[in-house]
Design brief:
It is built from eight helices and no strands. The protein is mainly α and about 180 residues long. It has a single domain, classed as Ferritin (Up-down Bundle). Pfam families: TspO_MBR.
Length: about 180
């Protein structure tokens, strides 16, 4: 079978995107998310963010910083695998909805770090965490109609968002009286 020029983008059978095209999109999305997340990280390269975060009154069940550093790459890898699988599926309304929700959720991760760490907007970041549970659950439901494995790769993400929302709300509550620039 001779490959047509369009097959390099859509794959051999005219279904979803080709492997290279889907991989390029996933890598671009992950790269953009990583750049934004890195820009807002409470690590030694951002001493102002780091000292503000360390001074926040956090509940005892707050994981150590190393746990966050270990969990997020795993969660984002799961989202990337799901996004890749969806992009490889033939384009139709259910697949496009699932891809759109995948992009939304991936973008919201970076947006949350901007709200919480850079803008120190504890209330809005807690609300955004709750919205991410809804959009994450929507993504799992939409992806399940197209590719159950893609949906399954996002379940840990949604579960972590549940925990992260409780944590963000408690941090907001504990630090609310001192305003957004507390500490």
């Amino acid at each position: 079978m001779t490959q047509k020029p369009s097959d390099t983008i859509t794959g051999e059978r005219g279904g979803g995107l080709s492997r290279p095209a889907a991989l390029a999109i996933v890598m671009g999305v992950l790269g953009a998310s990583a750049v934004l997340g890195r820009r807002n990280a409470p690590d030694p390269s951002h001493p102002g963010i780091r000292s503000w975060y360390k001074r926040l009154d956090k509940p005892a069940y707050t994981p150590p910083d190393a746990a966050f550093g270990a969990v997020w790459p795993v969660l984002e890898t799961g989202l990337a695998v799901g996004g890749y699988r969806l992009l490889r599926r033939p384009a139709d309304a259910p697949r496009n909805l699932a891809v759109g929700l995948w992009l939304l959720n991936t973008g919201m991760v970076g947006g949350w770090t901007e709200l919480f760490f850079r803008r120190k907007a504890l209330g809005p970041s807690a609300v955004a965490s709750g919205a991410m549970i809804a959009s994450g659950a929507g993504y799992v439901a939409a992806a399940a109609k197209v590719d159950r494995t893609a949906a399954a790769t996002a379940v840990p993400f949604v579960a972590w968002l549940g925990f992260a929302t409780v944590l963000a709300e408690r941090i907001w509550e504990r630090n609310r009286s001192d305003g957004p620039d507390k500490a």
